[in-house]
Amino acid sequence: xxxxxxxxxxxxxxxxxxxxxxxxxxxxxxxxxxxxxxxxxxxxxxxxxxxxxxxxxxxxxxxxxxxxxxxxxxxxxxxxxxxxxxxxxxxxxxxxxxxxxxxxxxxxxxxxxxxxxxxxxxxxxxxxxxxxxxxxxxxxxxxxxxxxxxxxxxxxxxxxxxxxxxxxx
Length: 169
What we know:
Layout: H1 3-19, H2 42-45, H3 63-68, H4 80-92, H5 96-108, H6 113-122, H7 130-144, H8 147-163
């Protein structure tokens, strides 16, 4: 398969997913201040109100703009604001746990991908000491402002300690 055709198929699939309820990106204000299931999928029902993380209108995304270089990878990423909107939709249908996951994900967007992978590996059983996990939690909290994620890592440190899942020296 030729590279341009493959690229076109990938971009078309991403666009289709976004238009069928996948995440778009960026802040939206609604009259009531809360987005509900009635607004879902956001890409379909609020497309004129959402933007990419770089400020481009969602409605301006197209395959041709990706190929021409007018859009880049950052334009196609989800923003914390969009994840918050998705969390509001989840809450409106009583999916509080999912809403919490979306909010933690929103916090983690500012953490570089390579660091996220390191944190993920550090959270695996027997990989970290309690102090190493506390240090990660402090980093998430202080460096990235990811307070909910930091709380989750602190809780994991306590649970790992109780269950004997910390790194053995």
